[in-house]
Design a protein that fits this description.
homodimer, 10 strands
Chain lengths: 116, 116
């Protein structure tokens, strides 16, 4: 059994034209022997956003804390602590932080997709 | 894309000799078209606990809020908001709430295992 505070996992930051203020961590992945799916934790700073994109694999997301919006079929929908999202493969999506603090969410992907 | 507050998902309560004060909800499952893994959210009331058991499938767990302990190779280890756990298939485990409020965690399983 692996027990880890996600904040102790190695972090990777993402900042550029299409992504702003995002930190990603692999909490549970293939290096842990997780052969079916991978748990990442993302922190989006205030005014930050993830890329607007789509890919063949699905996401299962749980909003841990903070406030934000998700792009869903062209509209921005509110998300907050306790929101769960299923994003099927091939569907365009983007997250942005609209709160004063960090937006923190768990995002799981099937094995075989890039872990981070 | 499915967007749901987990508290709006149907709940099932578990109380008996081996489990106490546990409420489970399927946030994302096969009915949503999630073909690889399933997201459940569990709430354990103060003094409550999950069954001590093992099974062939793995768990990926994220502690959303509250304080508790996990049984890990015979010892009780602290868990709290932000703790991530990987429990490989076949490993005995149990969670208990040791705090004053609810212990709330996300628990993911591969498809094919019982969703709740």
């Amino acid at each position: 059994m692996k027990v880890i505070d996600y904040r102790d996992a190695a972090e990777q930051t993402f900042d550029g034209e299409t992504v702003k203020g995002v930190t990603g961590r692999i909490a549970i992945g293939k290096d842990d022997g997780a052969g079916n799916f991978c748990m990442r934790v993302f922190t989006v700073a205030p005014d930050g956003f993830t890329p607007k994109h789509s890919h063949e694999w699905e996401h299962e997301v749980f909003i841990h804390s903070g406030k934000g919006k998700v792009l869903r079929k062209g509209d921005w929908q509110d998300i907050t602590s306790g929101t769960a999202l299923f994003i099927p493969g091939g569907e365009e999506h983007q997250f942005k932080n609209t709160g004063d603090g960090d937006l923190i969410f768990i995002c799981l992907i099937p094995s075989g997709a890039p872990e981070l």
